[in-house]
Amino acid sequence: VSAVLLIALAGAVSVGAKLGALAAASRLAASARVQRLGRHLVGATTAAIGVPALVEVCRAPTTDPAAALAGTGIGLVLAVRGRSLLLVLAAAVLIYSLTGVVIAG
Amino acid sequence: MTAATTLSSQPTSTRADAVRGAIRVAPLLAGVAPFGFAVGAAGAAANLPPLAAWSSAVLVYGGSIQLVTLQLVESGAAPAIVAAAALLAAVPRCLFAVALAPGLGATSWRWRALAAYLLVEPVFAASAAEDSTTLVTSPTRRRAFYVGAGVTVFVVWLAVTALGAVIGGQLPTGLGFELTVPVMMLALAAGSERTPPSWMGAATAGVLSLVLIDLPHRSGFIVAVVAGVTVAALIDRGAE
Predict the structure, then answer these.
(1) Candidate from B93, B189, B198 with C-beta closest to A50
(2) Closest CA to B203 of B235, B179, B238
């Protein structure tokens, strides 16, 4: 199966699911428990992508693992404190770069 | 401000409502832009045909789903796994759809399909805020607001992902851009619901995704997500 078809399949599934939810919304009640479950799903899905991606970055020959972990750590602390994604990314990249320079020096 | 003055200050045409939607969602674009840039760069760096990487921004509109899909397709996942992952990643947005549907009113399937396509986090945030603060009750005007916000995010998303695809891969390594995707994902995991059950669920999913990474067709990803959500839900139930 070609990559474009697989990507189109994912897109169709995604839009189809949202369309189904919109259509069925009059009969569904999004209780607090269901909404919380949805947020757990966001957390689990993104973590299942993020952890292997971080390990891959750390293993790259051009990356210093300590710098990558330091940058990620700062980003996570800011995210937990509810800071914007823009600030999280900027801080993570800055700390990563600075730590890399310090270690190299 | 009284209800009457609030109502009289509302724009009365659907075009004005659409513009208001675009303006309301504009501050949220500060979070969309770096994410889109990184997703575009990730698509260009992926070992995929250029057409596939480029088309993903339109075919799988939505940052996290696009990223998940690109990674699974690149790793050779089976179609069923790609579809299941897209479905799992879409579930939170299905909940957004359920929350917004009453305000948007009953309408045609064509409009619902457009609304479903445009439904991403910033559009939901702007529309939900509008629903909770405005006195406009007309579904037609609310739909105009929604489309204004949705089209704005869509256009900006296409622009920044294209920019990321074009110049993201040309940036020298060591600047830290290779770190943006994992940090984004982990920040979303940590920030989606800042409670211990959610963190435990995310930690479970993260660890299991590493442990099970060699399972065929990337099926370990699905197992990790289901296990993470289960752990979080069980802790939630215990706390109740």
Answers:
(1) B189
(2) B235
